[in-house]
């Protein structure tokens, strides 16, 4: 329920170095090695967390549910409607044809097969093996999936908050026996076709997953990861770099504490959503490992000793404590042989890593913590959650599914009764909490509010408990249940994990039982529990009421956690850090100081010393000859229906229709632009003149797989266009998905909301507005890099400017103003919204994209789509002659900004427009920026500087080049590093081998794995931006033929960026003022007072 990225925010985000997490875990401790992943609260989570990863299904704004329909036999009707739509036949025979026969009990490559089963729910044959010598477990999942996934998982429950598992997760990827280079992980990022490469620390486990569609590449990745986890070169220097160390450059300079994880977790703890998420979990489990922070608390990380670190590794990173996962169409013998190769040197070890159970409380408990909420407007900055440790059901899949349905019923959409009660109460600005959390050994539930006054904080618990009490008596309507069930069933069947590999999503699901020594197959099956649950619900109308009673009303294991704004908090934290440093300084005499200086120098030098080329060459990589020279083609048919352009992306989608309706907003009057995203919220949240929003939301949930909206801004791709980029592209896009037989129902809903949306409902509008404002506001701190990129882009191109108006600081400003104007100027706001609606709802502005197979398109989509389009007027009502694009004067003079947020880390950006510098960016630019990102910037800003991440990005359509850092302790120093990139590149000595590796990596980024709905969306975006297949091939050819000379040449372009680029830094007032005192001229302002 907290903010989740939209296209408007994420278009400037590189796909490879930055990935927004939509809830790998509701707790904050799923942290990662390299990719910037934000702990996000998700609205709800079916047993299957598939949904959480799906870009489409779980954005903050995809709401669905149902409306009471009183036919008695709704369930049977509903079951037949959904089930018969599944057109893909079971492929057991097809899978078995391609795999070796095995006998349970026999040993293969030193692995004993202990269990085998075909699971139709995921079209896979599943084999569980145990390694005879060590007891290591292997789940070998065999199917026809080309996106192969491997994972190695250790059970790593920590006993304190020093961050040991997290620092280890980083450290084992810093060189190993076979690959003794500084960071093999980075080499893989540079040079593989991976569709996923990362590592996660959870509260009780550490996972190292990789995925690739290329078999050779896949096994290269597997080999590097296996060597890393079983034979890492762990040294005290690695602990210093990734964990913590004291740093001192010269005699009179201040000593500081640095370390990648140390700064990463400082960033995490600067985000109030993460802080309350962490405490909400920890307070429920004072007796076991879930009571500590596995990611590490910055206050405790410096207490981690080398001895403790080493012991933790020795005890837990052993095959006897390992679970392996293989998934996909790769040969099974290869899997077993590869593992055998690594396991043969180990003997069985008795490892005590079981997660102990938390005993149940007799009474609820209360916890209050202070936090840093900045210094202004503190009266409405309280937040609180009510949390339960639920009754024990971990081995009963039907009960877990029932709890997930209950979770969705309670808070899945804004119309859900618990969520609606909280919103309507006016106690706070935004509903928070992870809902049901099945990741831990004991299941939890969390719900709360942020943006509360002190009094709100005091009455929240009673409100939640009273509401649940009432629901346990009154229950839910049939319509509500039907809608929630449909929503969950749609997700279970669609298995749309977005850009997250399906095999990895299934591994995480399987681990919910497997990690605790229960049957790993249980969470992979959903058909039977689903049928059982439906039967129960049909027979027993009070089943869900009793579920609420059992798990909430009679359950006294409840923790009430409140977070209170403390203006002194940041100072007190800083003082503690200072004291630690001071205590340390006291232990040093003059020689000690000198030693520390030398030690700092030694570490820095070691970090930038290039790897031995001979060792680097050992990292397995593909050759240019291994990859396709042709740019992949996404099929596309362009037709016209009722004078509207309709794109069909003809792909097999298992009976689902994915629908995108794009509305061109380039000609929109300037004063309406910032209304667009808010309008998108209103479409699905406000209700129509015929139907209130509760009923509308229920209908969306009952009939569809979800509807959401997004915004896309860029410039047209016009080859050889004078001045570089073409005109701006700006589109508002409504996106829906539906089982094909229900397509007309999706279109009915769209027609209703587009024509009949009820903008006169001012009070509901106020709720939506306040929630939107709160969501945007809370996304600024943790996504400072996006804010910086957006502000930079706004200075150079009109699409960048528009994007910022609809998603950046300017949008936040617009929302804040609107809140204040709402009562005094309601009539004019109302009329603006109506004008916007009538402008958008016009066929002359629309482009439609449909992804499904041709037969389904002809039979199920074309007739009803035609009917929908006929009803939409072709011409717009008379508009003011000038659009925002004409009105707004490109403000191209250089502007350096410092945006103040409450944070202990910074986000530093610098950028310029290459077209405006007279340079035509091409494939070479992509390669140069990728190379810089994973060599120079990684080393200087992350490894040496202690930031969590840094990267450079160039957008070939807009010509925007930006450097960005993430959770960065520095400002000025990072900017200096950006400026020196030009010199680094000009002098870079790259072997042809290294260049080839980079080429493979860039091609890997270009060919990123996409599910059908994502391919359809890419088709739409390319069409709207004028990107042709020839153009894609041209870029690919440029990348494939890139030479050392090209890269060096790009150095001179960067020189121009250094001298004429603009700066935007996001960080604390103190850090930004310090940067100014070091010679920068940032114009400082608070995010909320532009
Ligand atoms: Zn990390």
UniProtKB/TrEMBL annotation:
Q: Please name the InterPro entries in this protein's record.
A: Metalloenz_LuxS/M16, Pept_M16_N, Peptidase_M16_C, Peptidase_M16C_assoc, PreP_C
SMART domains from the UniProt entry: M16C_associated
Tell me a GO biological process for this protein.
protein processing
> Which cofactors are named for this entry?
Zn(2+)
GO cellular component terms?
Answer: mitochondrion
Localization per record: Mitochondrion
Q: Indicate whether Protease appears among the record's keywords.
A: yes
Instruction: Kindly state which keywords UniProt assigns to this record, in alphabetical order.
Output: Hydrolase, Metal-binding, Metalloprotease, Mitochondrion, Protease, Zinc
What main location does UniProt list?
Answer: mitochondrion
Task: Give yes or no: UniProt keyword Metal-binding.
Answer: yes
The chain positions of domain Peptidase M16C associated read 563-818
What GO annotations for molecular function exist for this entry? metal ion binding; metalloendopeptidase activity
Q: Name one Pfam family in it.
A: M16C_assoc
UniProt lists the family membership as follows: Belongs to the peptidase M16 family. PreP subfamily.
Q: What is this protein called?
A: Peptidase M16C associated domain-containing protein
């Amino acid at each position: 329920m907290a903010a989740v990225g939209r296209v408007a925010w994420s278009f400037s985000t590189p796909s490879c170095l930055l990935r927004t997490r939509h809830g790998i875990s509701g707790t904050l401790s799923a942290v990662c090695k390299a990719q910037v992943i934000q702990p996000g609260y998700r609205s709800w989570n079916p047993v299957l967390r598939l949904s959480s990863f799906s870009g489409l299904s779980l954005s903050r704004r995809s709401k669905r549910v149902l409306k009471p329909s009183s036919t008695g036999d709704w369930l049977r009707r509903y079951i037949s409607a959904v089930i018969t739509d599944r057109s893909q036949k079971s492929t057991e025979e097809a899978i078995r044809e391609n795999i070796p026969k095995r006998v349970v009990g026999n040993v293969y490559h030193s692995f004993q097969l202990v269990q085998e089963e075909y699971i139709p729910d995921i079209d896979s044959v599943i084999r569980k093996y145990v390694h005879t010598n060590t007891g290591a477990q292997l789940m070998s999942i065999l199917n026809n999936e080309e996106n192969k996934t491997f994972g190695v998982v250790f059970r790593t429950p920590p006993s304190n908050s020093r961050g040991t598992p997290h620092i280890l997760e980083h450290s084992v990827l810093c060189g190993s026996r076979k690959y003794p280079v500084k960071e093999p992980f980075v080499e893989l990022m540079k040079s593989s076709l991976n569709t996923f490469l990362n590592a996660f620390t959870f509260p009780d486990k550490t996972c190292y997953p990789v995925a690739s569609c290329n078999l050779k590449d896949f096994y290269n990745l597997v080999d590097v990861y296996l060597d890393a986890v079983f034979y890492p070169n762990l040294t005290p220097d690695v602990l210093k770099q990734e964990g913590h160390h004291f740093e001192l450059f010269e005699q009179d300079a201040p000593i500081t504490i640095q370390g990648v994880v140390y700064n990463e977790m400082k960033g995490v703890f600067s985000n109030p959503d993460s802080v309350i998420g962490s405490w909400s979990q920890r307070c429920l489990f004072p007796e076991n490992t879930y009571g500590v922070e596995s990611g590490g608390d910055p206050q405790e990380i410096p207490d981690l000793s080398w001895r403790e670190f080493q012991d933790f590794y020795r005890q837990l990173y052993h095959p006897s404590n390992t679970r392996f996962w293989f998934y996909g169409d790769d040969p099974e013998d290869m899997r077993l042989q590869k593992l055998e190769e690594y396991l043969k040197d180990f003997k069985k070890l008795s490892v005590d890593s079981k997660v102990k159970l938390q005993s149940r409380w007799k009474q609820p408990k209360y916890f209050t913590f202070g936090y840093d909420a900045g210094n202004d407007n503190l009266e409405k900055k309280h937040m609180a959650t009510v949390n339960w440790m639920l009754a024990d059901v971990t081995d009963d899949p039907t009960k877990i599914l029932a709890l997930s349905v209950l979770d969705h019923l309670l808070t899945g959409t804004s119309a859900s009764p618990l969520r609606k009660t909280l919103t309507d109460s006016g106690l706070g600005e935004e509903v928070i909490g992870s809902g049901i959390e099945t990741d831990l050994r004991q299941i939890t539930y969390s719900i709360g509010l942020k943006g509360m006054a002190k009094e709100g904080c005091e009455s929240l618990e009673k409100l939640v408990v009273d509401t649940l009490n009432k629901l346990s008596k009154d229950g839910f309507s049939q319509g509500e249940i039907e809608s929630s069930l449909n929503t969950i069933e749609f997700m279970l069947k669609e298995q749309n994990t977005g850009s997250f590999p399906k095999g990895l999503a299934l591994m995480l699901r399987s681990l919910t039982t497997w990690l605790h020594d229960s049957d790993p197959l249980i969470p992979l099956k959903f058909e039977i529990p689903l049928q059982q649950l439906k039967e129960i619900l049909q027979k027993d109308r009070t089943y869900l009421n009793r579920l609420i009673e059992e798990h909430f009303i009679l359950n006294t294991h409840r923790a009430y956690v409140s977070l209170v704004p403390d203006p002194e908090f940041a100072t007190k934290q800083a003082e503690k850090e200072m004291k630690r440093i001071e205590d340390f300084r006291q232990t040093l005499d003059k020689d000690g100081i000198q030693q520390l200086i030398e030690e700092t120098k030694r570490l820095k030098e070691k970090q930038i010393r290039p790897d031995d080329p001979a060792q680097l060459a050992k990292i397995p990589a593909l050759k240019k000859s291994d990859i396709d020279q042709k740019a992949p083609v996404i099929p596309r048919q362009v037709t016209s229906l009722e004078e509207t352009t309709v794109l069909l992306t003809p792909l097999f989608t298992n009976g689902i229709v994915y629908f995108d309706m794009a509305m061109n907003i380039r000609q929109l009057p300037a004063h309406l632009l910032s209304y667009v995203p808010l309008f998108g919220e209103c479409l699905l949240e406000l209700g129509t003149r015929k139907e209130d929003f509760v009923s509308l939301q229920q209908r969306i949930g009952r009939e569809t797989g979800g509807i959401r909206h997004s915004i896309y801004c860029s410039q047209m791709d016009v080859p050889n266009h004078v001045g570089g980029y073409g005109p701006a592209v700006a589109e508002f896009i409504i996106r829906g998905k539906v089982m094909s037989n229900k397509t007309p129902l999706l279109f009915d809903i769209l027609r209703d909301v587009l024509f009949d949306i009820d903008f006169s409902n001012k009070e509901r509008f106020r709720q939506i507005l306040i929630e939107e404002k709160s969501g945007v506001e809370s996304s600024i701190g943790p996504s400072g890099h996006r804010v910086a990129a957006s502000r930079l882009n706004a200075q150079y191109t009109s699409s960048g400017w528009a994007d910022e108006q609809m998603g950046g600081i300017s949008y936040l400003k617009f929302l804040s103003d609107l809140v204040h104007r709402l009562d005094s100027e309601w009539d004019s706001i109302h009329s603006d919204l109506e004008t916007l609606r009538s402008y958008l709802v016009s066929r002359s502005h629309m482009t439609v994209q449909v992804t499904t197979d041709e037969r389904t398109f002809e039979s199920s989509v074309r007739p009803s789509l035609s009917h929908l389009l006929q009803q939409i007027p072709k011409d717009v009502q008379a508009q003011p002659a000038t659009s925002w694009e004409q009105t707004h004067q490109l403000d191209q003079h250089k502007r350096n900004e410092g945006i103040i947020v409450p944070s202990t880390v910074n986000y530093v950006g610098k950028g310029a427009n290459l077209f405006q510098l007279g340079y035509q960016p091409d494939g070479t630019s992509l390669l140069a920026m990728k190379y810089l990102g994973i060599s120079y910037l990684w080393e200087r800003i992350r490894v040496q500087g202690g930031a969590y991440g840094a990267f450079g990005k160039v957008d070939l359509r807009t010509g925007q080049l930006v450097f960005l850092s993430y959770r960065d302790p520095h400002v000025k120093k990072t900017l200096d590093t950006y400026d020196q990139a030009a010199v680094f590149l000009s002098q870079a000595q790259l072997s042809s081998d290294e260049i080839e590796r980079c080429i493979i990596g860039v091609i890997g980024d270009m060919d990123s794995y996409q599910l059908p709905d994502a391919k359809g969306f890419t088709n739409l975006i390319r069409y709207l931006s004028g990107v042709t297949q020839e153009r894609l091939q041209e870029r690919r050819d440029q990348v494939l033929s890139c030479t050392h000379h090209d890269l060096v040449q790009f150095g001179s372009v960067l020189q121009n960026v250094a001298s004429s680029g603009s700066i935007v830094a996001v960080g604390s007032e103190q850090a930004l003022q310090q940067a100014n005192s070091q010679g920068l001229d940032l114009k400082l302002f608070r995010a909320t007072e532009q």
